Amino acid sequence: MPVFLNSSDPDFEAEFSALLGAKREDSPEVDDIVARIIADVRARGDAAVIELTERFDRLKLTPETLAFSAAEVEAQCGKVSPRDRDAMELAAERIRAYHVRQRPENALWTDPEGATLGWRWSPVSAAGLYVPGGLASYPSSVLMNAIPAQVAGVERLAICVPTPDGQVNPLVILAARLAGVDAIYRIGGAQAIAAMAYGTPTIAPVDKITGPGNAFVAAAKRRVFGKVGIDMIAGPSEILVIADKDNDPDWLALDLLSQAEHDQVAQSVLITDDAAFGQAVAQAVEARLKTLARRDIAGASWRDYGAVITVRDMDEAAALSNRIAPEHLELCVADPEALAEKTRHAGAIFLGQWTPEAIGDYVGGPNHVLPTARSARFSSGLSVLDFMKRTTLAKMTPSALHAIGPAAETLAISESLEAHGLSVRCRLDRLNEESK
Amino acid sequence: MPVFLNSSDPDFEAEFSALLGAKREDSPEVDDIVARIIADVRARGDAAVIELTERFDRLKLTPETLAFSAAEVEAQCGKVSPRDRDAMELAAERIRAYHVRQRPENALWTDPEGATLGWRWSPVSAAGLYVPGGLASYPSSVLMNAIPAQVAGVERLAICVPTPDGQVNPLVILAARLAGVDAIYRIGGAQAIAAMAYGTPTIAPVDKITGPGNAFVAAAKRRVFGKVGIDMIAGPSEILVIADKDNDPDWLALDLLSQAEHDQVAQSVLITDDAAFGQAVAQAVEARLKTLARRDIAGASWRDYGAVITVRDMDEAAALSNRIAPEHLELCVADPEALAEKTRHAGAIFLGQWTPEAIGDYVGGPNHVLPTARSARFSSGLSVLDFMKRTTLAKMTPSALHAIGPAAETLAISESLEAHGLSVRCRLDRLNEESK
What we know:
homodimer, alpha/beta, Rossmann fold, about 45% helix, Histidinol_DH_monofunct (chains A, B), Histidinol_DH_CS (chains A, B)
């Protein structure tokens, strides 16, 4: 049973805080192991990667077979059914169309003192995308990571995807090809992150690593952060549905379950202003759980982390939503736009009852790599900007330097940075000489 | 003596790689200590912060005196000379004028299928800015961190600045007031980062922490990353000057020294296409080092990490610059714009000989918090975007869902995510029923 809360109950605040603070993350003590793996890959390169892959994935590789060959890529893509291929091509096209609009603008202007100021965006040269293997090997995630990189103009795109016992998901390979990936390595775990960050004789290092992964991958990304850029440390998925009673309980039950089926530590929460409707949705969830293929996972998630919260009105729903800062927020209410205006912290908002969250996972267009665990308070979903960086530009003229240089000199002196001050002063002196 | 390299020498590549790979970062083993400090602050709140401040800063505080009072802020600001105040106001005004242009645009459009798509930016609710104490207590950094936050629309801005033995820099307090900071806490180190990330009874938690600091602060920021957002792990400062012979060697010597004087592990590099000019600059550096106030620090930096590189032409200079990915890049050449076009990885570019880097530290307008240690390959200087996040928006109509829903269902099934597929299917079925 999920928890049922009511904002009118006297102990609501304590219960809601407990819900917010519930620790869902599996955090095994992997950091020491990861540190050793990274050091090993840095020291021994391909040999370490190959040994670790044999140990963890039961797969014997050589430097020559670390990457899929062009023929292997071709063969895997050929296994995909036309129906799946068409669906993936539609998804790729829509994701690309959305992300193209995110390309940032350069700027350059001249200020009243005559100084030219601005900035210029440029793509990172090389990016590496991690794709989990096994249960969580989602081809859609390949599109969601690789297409923004491609749109940004990244020159070299690599993927690491483990293939335990040699098992390959052909759709992952097809997604990589659709998204313009240059190299696909069949390696995973911390060793893959280390190889992409530091490079090996066979695997060229990249500048930015993105993509979800297990606790080892997350710990490795945290450790290589600084040497390369990373996207975020992904946590278990979550959805908040805010709904009034004018909804089909079964639809919302499926929306809640579409998060719960990801992971037994995923979280699905319903907020409604109608307690009876909340009960109806909970009953619909139980009914669907009887037959759902992933009922063990989804049922555990719903039982342990699910919640149905009854509120007085939708303003209260918005306030609670802002405290939850959900990864996914579905607004199944009469005026979803008005409610969206009031919800400030959310990774992605799905407006109205015709927009199930699953649309956003595949074909909506926006990215499905989104901030989890309340991090929508301070971070955004993956975008083209994650694969670009900004260089600021400044050019002084003699008269601009004459106008603002003395203030710089004053501040440099106040900070006891004499050379800073002198580097301005020597130029100002020249100007004064010349104007004599 | 700095190293002198020449790109025509046969062993240049090895020497340049060694220069790139030189480890400048002091990295004492502070991580365990920091982990204990964070745990202590989480467990004991104000009491832990107060004890640690007494131990490290020799300053006895109470919960009531953790923050500067309004009267104390007023008193400190009153100590600043009119000249310093005017300079700081000019700096604040110019920094604000630059950053206002960085405010990002929201977007909302309807696609050919009738789906409404877009995104919306919003500020983080609360930000905490770390300001080092002692030697590296730079008021200009307060402006550079706080003004972008203020321009972003952050509602609550806090600063932590340690005041060892109670020593306060009045300019830091004035800068905080000019930049709209709400609370100034006289605490530092890992305990300050922990307090801002997790909150204490007296110090409200924030969503994002920015600002430079020592190894303890850096390790603490890395550890709280995820609980809150952080800007970057700042490393020692660096400058690359690319210059032809039509420059005053003394000007460039001072520009190189203005980085070297920051820190003995700072790095200053000159690339020139004229070996004799390179020697002249090196001589000018030595001459200035005889009298410079910070000659011990600047001299050690120049001796241990300085470099003068002679290249065949400016294209080669640009190529080397891209491998260095410098924090600061000064282009003192006849056509700096053309050379800037070729330099892709740099935190900030200063164009032409009238733009000493020190202008950018104070009054240029662009931010002086910039990516160090080659991280300009994948990251940008601090900006308004660091204090905002993006929520994606999607709204399907029944007909849009009819058009793209089946592809989502297909992909969900291919990923064995049944509830995802059903959440789309139940809606498509309703549409089919209605159209009968």
